[in-house]
Amino acid sequence: MPQPSILVVDDQPINVQLLKRKLEREGIQVTAAYNGLEALDLVRKTKPDLILLDVMMPDMDGIEVCQRLQADELTRSIPIIFITARTSKEGKIEGLNVGAVDYITKPIDLDETLARVQTQLRFVTINREMLDLQRRLVEARRAATIGAVTQGIAHNLNNLLGVVIGYLDLIKAYYDKPEQVRKNAQNVEDAVHRIVSIIKQLSSLVVKTRPPLSKGNLQRLLESSVTRFHSECRLTTPVTIENPLGELIFETNYEVFEEVLSKVLINAWESYGQQPNAPHPIAVRTQLLEKPGEPTMIEIRVEDSGRGIDEEIRDHIFEPFISSKHTVGVGMGLTVARHALRNLGGEATMSDRPEGGAVAVLTHPLEARKLRKHEA
């Protein structure tokens, strides 16, 4: 286990020496600074695990040093214990309000200081272990997703290629029967389109940057998404649109919005299973979600009265190639929809409807938020 490191900041050398000697006896590496500017420079160079910071110093006091460290993303997470001669409640609250984790009052009790330091170092260790565990969990999930995608690709493409080869054999066998050739050629074309669709969907999952945005009319986008759904599935299934927001204008990407909603509509239609003559009611409902301190979101609910969410896939419904259908070449629609919507700053969830069937809840920001650096 690496030796913990502490930066002691105090303009009184005697205080620094006392703390340094006490802490080093406990196996703690100590670096000293005697003013605020020196402290800021050493923090950036050494990245200590903990800072003991005197409040009363000339030129730049501990409060300002703490504020500067808190304003810097690289140093914000370093815990700071203030050392001060102030004993008033107001003085302690001021320090805690700017980001300190604890307070030690002068004259310094070395045993108490050591106990407080060791407590904070334990918190630092626990926090690092949690971050490491979180990182490994993310890596494990990424590896599992890659495995699922790879296995799903291989399975689906092998099945589809098998379909293509099978129909090509039929074309060869019935080459002298034009109608049979035409029918089998159409089946080959459909299978090839599914292969192209899988490749296109995989390409869209790789993209993490936000697509270009423009002003969109909610009612028109809902209607065009339904049209796209009908066109892609060659269906005339009626979709009820209940949009009290009307022709609300918001920032979005037309292509992505239509793709997301059309895929969710396809999922709703497929939830009814193999019932070609039965009604397949689908409803799209909208509302605004406004919470104090949070961006306003447009909520779009797509409701069906189908079979609901299968228990076997309930917790994995947005993962690649997870599907309750037994058709060759399916299982990425919801994965692509959620990924695309997240790139626009929104989210997609699924749940059962109390009346039967399922509801997909899509949220989309009313106004585009500014991207952080790591999202760009």
From TrEMBL:
Residues in Histidine kinase domain copies: 152-368
Alphabetized UniProt keyword annotations: DNA-binding, Kinase, Phosphoprotein, Transcription, Transcription regulation, Transferase, Two-component regulatory system
Residues found modified as 4-aspartylphosphate: 54
InterPro entries: CheY-like_superfamily, HATPase_C_sf, HATPase_dom, His_kinase_dom, HisK_dim/P_dom, HisK_dim/P_sf, Sig_transdc_His_kin-like_C, Sig_transdc_resp-reg_receiver
Location of the Response regulatory domain: 5-121
Stored PROSITE patterns: HIS_KIN, RESPONSE_REGULATORY
Species this protein is from: Opitutus terrae (strain DSM 11246 / JCM 15787 / PB90-1)
GO molecular function: DNA binding; phosphorelay sensor kinase activity
Protein name, as recorded: histidine kinase
Catalytic activity: ATP + protein L-histidine = ADP + protein N-phospho-L-histidine
EC id: 2.7.13.3
The protein's enzyme class: transferase
Origin: domain of life: Bacteria
